[in-house]
Amino acid sequence: MSISIEQLADKLAGLDAGKMYQNDFFFTWEKSDDELQAVFAVADALRLLRENNISPRIFDSGLAVSLFRDNSTRTRFSFNSAANLLGLTVQDLDEGKSQIAHGETVRETANMISFMADVIGIRDDMYIGKGNAYMREVANAVRQGYEEGVLEQRPTLVNLQCDVDHPTQAMADMLHIIHHFGGVENLKGKKLAMSWAYSPSYGKPLSVPQGVIGLMTRFGMDVCLAHPEGYEVMGEVEAVAAANAAKSGGRFSRTNDMREAFNDADIVYPKSWASYAAMEKRTDLYGNGDDAGIKALEKELLAQNADHRDWACTEEMMKLSKEGKALYMHCLPADISGVSCEMGEVDASVFSRYREPLYRQAGFKPYIIAAMIFLAKCEDPAAMLRFLAERGQARWVK
Amino acid sequence: MSISIEQLADKLAGLDAGKMYQNDFFFTWEKSDDELQAVFAVADALRLLRENNISPRIFDSGLAVSLFRDNSTRTRFSFNSAANLLGLTVQDLDEGKSQIAHGETVRETANMISFMADVIGIRDDMYIGKGNAYMREVANAVRQGYEEGVLEQRPTLVNLQCDVDHPTQAMADMLHIIHHFGGVENLKGKKLAMSWAYSPSYGKPLSVPQGVIGLMTRFGMDVCLAHPEGYEVMGEVEAVAAANAAKSGGRFSRTNDMREAFNDADIVYPKSWASYAAMEKRTDLYGNGDDAGIKALEKELLAQNADHRDWACTEEMMKLSKEGKALYMHCLPADISGVSCEMGEVDASVFSRYREPLYRQAGFKPYIIAAMIFLAKCEDPAAMLRFLAERGQARWVK
Amino acid sequence: MSISIEQLADKLAGLDAGKMYQNDFFFTWEKSDDELQAVFAVADALRLLRENNISPRIFDSGLAVSLFRDNSTRTRFSFNSAANLLGLTVQDLDEGKSQIAHGETVRETANMISFMADVIGIRDDMYIGKGNAYMREVANAVRQGYEEGVLEQRPTLVNLQCDVDHPTQAMADMLHIIHHFGGVENLKGKKLAMSWAYSPSYGKPLSVPQGVIGLMTRFGMDVCLAHPEGYEVMGEVEAVAAANAAKSGGRFSRTNDMREAFNDADIVYPKSWASYAAMEKRTDLYGNGDDAGIKALEKELLAQNADHRDWACTEEMMKLSKEGKALYMHCLPADISGVSCEMGEVDASVFSRYREPLYRQAGFKPYIIAAMIFLAKCEDPAAMLRFLAERGQARWVK
């Protein structure tokens, strides 16, 4: 990256991102274009500082509270890396997975864990209609606590994946695309295929495809969502995608034909997910504690999946893409045919060829999270970047 | 708070708290009045520093070991916040809950985890006659290890709740009272009702009421302990409370009538607990691995509780208090009627009215814990406060 | 310790340890004599700095990832202490114990957790032929990730105990011996008895005796490995020990007679372990998920153990040692007769007499681990030691 901190600070200074200060990050589509550009600029700057062994630490002490309501390795490590980079210590809140707290309990717990919390990161993607609502309940509780003087600082809520959006993933994916194509200005008209793909597992969250169509449509790209019938995503996110495309001069289309999506695509993102309707049903079954119903649903959904084994990112499918060389993307871990399962989302040879870019893609996430926190914590982020570069504090005294 | 660090340092310099240096904190009643005042002064000072974005970090590195033998969210977060504020990293010792180690094992484990430990925080409140004894065993082991040169530093033990006292809770409660009434000098004659209250759960620890009567009687207050027959607390703590009251010019009384306690009270603290006798019985049953006996006891105790559903902090009861406006206190979480249970310790309307002060009350705990550590680690705490204020290191570079 | 940082830095400057920079630590026998001496010198220096309240912190931020595939208290605390001392924050990777990942998954996970990881510490001692192989797979994956630019820094792998070696334990043991005998130059001809001892438990790892004979034979000592028939260790490590002894002018012998080993010994290290053959069998049974087979094997091995109850470090056995005063060593926790079990590895009176040196022995481990990390992270460790001493940053502002 030949860009300098000074250039990134200049860019940042020209963006209208002031509303991010002391604010939360729930959905990308609630943020302005300038705000998203600010996240990308800060992420690049934090990475550049670290690559030059300059610490971007802005906290001497303070907690970053994490609450993972689903297992997670990479998002957990990304959040912890981001917190650590800025000087915060992660403290897990382990509530138990099944228990969904409400009302008084949420308000109270949110405040009790936040006396010295600067950030709260939540992953809650299991229950349709509930994950994001829970995050907002927590954020409201601590904002109120801050306003009443109960809390000395306002903890920033970062959505680490909910039932609707997965903003840290989609933003990391987007920054990867920007770098791959040499700048956001080169993305106009680029075709991205966000496609369902077969997996022998069940119930993967919708937030990745939703996050992708909700974000990638903002840069003038031609975003095509492909899936078999019955694997529809949330209608409200499709509406967001359509509106984005109209505004950005891009395109948002849907198809039930994977080949159509891959055809001439610059970027392919083939990935399994459960249908919105199935996830809603499951949420109700969980709510009623209907174990037999859950098992029956699982069986039904796996059978439904099995009808679409041909939805795989094979070498043959890749040949359909632009010059046969589309950028293959995945949020990882992928179900690789013959490696992690018999038949899965992607051919082993395709996966192997893209391993390095896939790892790079994942590598943006810690910086995206750190940038979201940074912008919520620095009133003048451009000035802060300049200050950090000038301070020149070594991350690692060599 | 209009008081300055300079004033707090001056106050601290006038107190005889030298024995707290390199020492532990087990029971409030083992500490002199000056020592308790020192904890309050340091807690206020640490908060004031942090509110002014000045870091009170006194450790560049070092561990704070935590051992929670019972589930805990708020005490865990308070301990971790306190450690983080001073620059220590928390390392949990997860021994498993059921296993109570003795003798050689305790001595060895205590030393093995303490090579770089500056603090050890223990919560062990489940077993009557054992929790505090275990803490002292650990503290003795590491003191000996330090004296023999096995450990380079002497880890300070902080009692995060035992079978007898809950000093970090009681001290936080007291600091809340002091702030609420505008100073410790305004507490003479104030009536505090520490009352049992009905809860549909079973076996809540005695250490909260014991901690409260063992501490609040030292400030000239009129402390009234109320509970149904059969819910007696430890006799030795009642004796402490009586002696405290005699010495401080206050009063300690007991009653089996909740109304008598609430009558004209300035402060009410209605809360469920198990009786000492029942907890002793349970400890023996656990010791013998008598699961059937434990179940039978639980059933018996819940039935016994159910006889006292009228012991609730209702609006009607609140009207009995001083001008109907007593300060309502609780260590949280409370069993709120119609919210967290059908019938519980407190009416929802009472709880809601006091939510903000309740959250404030809880907010003192991290600072109380940090103050206990600070006083054990700074030979001249007044000078250290002045040094920190002058150093002016930003906690959060804004 | 009357030696100064300056002297240790001088010593270090004279050693050829440059290959340790940006490298891993798997087996002691892969390291040169100079490299081992460098670890000892740095461990002593880090301790000396800390004892003088000078922080050897070389990281402003960064992660130390730990992966424990077996329960651990003391190694976990040692690793966390070492990381903390140098300024790193530990992040546990909790994969579940039973699941042994391979190939693509290992490569991917290793990179996903390492975007900001400076160190990875792994304990994987359960499965013969697999633990060390897994560590090397992880190390290769992240080295490749670093070379490809996926990772900005190269995480150093530290073997926290595998199926073959336990280098942090053996090195800590050795540093204890060096200090006890007043320097490595006094060890020529000293006799060390690494002896099997009876324990009522089953399946203790082989890596301790293997680590000890693989390391202690390098200093001209007379190392005698004693065990009943059927408790053989890995042949390849015995070969290493024999070659070491030949090269160092020492001796490596084996016997099935504990008395022969203890006879005139300067150091005795009596400890239970499972036989290599039994561990291999168990690994296969685990691999096949053969629970019945595992239970049968356990029964068989306990019965086999019970045939050798006379292999205990009794007072009578101790009398055989040099002037009856050999240095008794153990990696802890020991099975103490009449204390932690009816009959075990050592008499209570012997253990008690050596408690203080045993604790000291354990106390070297955090510094050994920190030294391994330090040497992998500092291109000129001697200069860095001088820099840290001169910087004089207080670990604890008193």
Secondary structure layout:
3 copies of one chain form a homotrimer.
Chain A: H1 5-13, H2 33-51, E1 63-68, H3 74-86, E2 89-92, H4 103-112, E3 117-124, H5 131-147, E4 156-162, H6 167-180, E5 191-196, H7 207-216, E6 222-226, H8 235-248, E7 251-255, H9 258-262, E8 267-271, H10 276-287, H11 291-306, H12 315-320, E9 327-328, E10 336-337, E11 346-347, H13 348-353, H14 355-363, H15 365-377, H16 381-391
Parallel strand pairs in A: 1-2, 1-3, 3-4, 5-6, 5-8, 6-7, 8-9, 10-11
List keywords for this structure.
homotrimer; 398 residues; 5-stranded parallel beta sheet
Give a structural overview.
- Three copies of one chain form a homotrimer.
- The first copy, chain A, is an alpha/beta fold.
- In chain A, 46% of the residues lie in helices and 13% in strands.
- In chain A, the strands form three sheets. In chain A, strands 7-6-5-8-9 form a five-stranded parallel β-sheet. The first copy, chain A, has a four-stranded parallel β-sheet with strand order 2-1-3-4, with helices on both faces. Chain A has a two-stranded parallel ribbon with strand order 10-11.
- In chain A, α2 (33-51) packs parallel to α16 and α7 packs parallel to α8.
- Chain A is globular and about 55 Å long.
- The mean pLDDT of chain A is 94.
- Chain A binds chain B through residues 58-63, 89, 91, 93, 103-105, 107-109, 111-113, 115-116, 118, 145, 148-153, 377-379, 384, 387, and chain B through 47, 50-51, 55, 57, 73-74, 77-78, 80-81, 84-85, 87, 89-90, 332-333, 336, 339-340, 351, 355-356, 359-360, 362-363, 365-366, 393-398.
